[in-house]
Write a structure and sequence with these properties.
Length: 187
């Protein structure tokens, strides 16, 4: 990409990635979130790095505006406590063990789909019959795609591009729940 066309090309790449997302997978994710709410469960969202912010943003909007109990367990005290006691690769698994209930849905965000802590979390959920949704990129045959009940794949190897699309996907689920894209902040 030439510097003068960088942003025009970047927008085109994002549009292309969005077009490649399987709409059926988005609908299935939405159905699973609604079923979780109907079962009186909650949605718990996890990610590493920037995806902790994405998790928090989605959890706040889905709770407040979508009226579905959604949490992101990314408190530094919890992460460092569980990482210290159980290892970083198991902190999410332990958080799920302590906080998830049978009727919950766990959403796992990963660019590669191979982050050890998220993979261990997915394995724990599978062993304990907790529903899961992964939103990943890089390779469609990544570990999370294989382990989770529902999955959405972003056909990119670019970290920022994947994280942008993950945010778009999650916030589109909130807007779908609300039933419109333009609304007051005090629903």
């Amino acid at each position: 990409m030439k510097n003068q066309n960088f942003f025009d090309n970047y927008k085109l790449v994002i549009i292309d990635l969005i077009k490649k997302i399987n709409t059926k997978d988005l609908k299935q994710a939405f159905i699973e979130i609604n079923l979780t709410s109907k079962r009186k469960g909650k949605v718990i969202v996890f990610g590493n790095g920037a995806n902790t912010s994405t998790s928090s943003h989605f959890a706040t909007d889905m709770t407040k505006n979508g009226k579905i109990r959604t949490i992101s367990l990314n408190d530094p005290n919890l992460i460092t406590c569980f990482s210290n006691d159980y290892g970083f690769e198991r902190w999410i698994e332990k958080a799920i063990e302590y906080y998830a209930d049978k009727n919950d849905l766990v959403i796992l965000l990963s660019a590669s789909g191979n982050s050890k802590n998220l993979v261990n979390a997915a394995k724990y959920c599978r062993r304990n019959n907790i529903k899961t949704l992964s939103i990943t990129g890089f390779n469609k045959k990544n570990k999370l795609q294989k382990l989770t009940n529902k999955k959405i794949f972003i056909d990119s190897k670019g970290y920022n591009l994947i994280e942008i699309i993950q945010n778009i996907i999650l916030l589109s689920l909130v807007d779908k729940k609300i039933g419109k894209t333009i609304y007051s902040s005090n629903l």
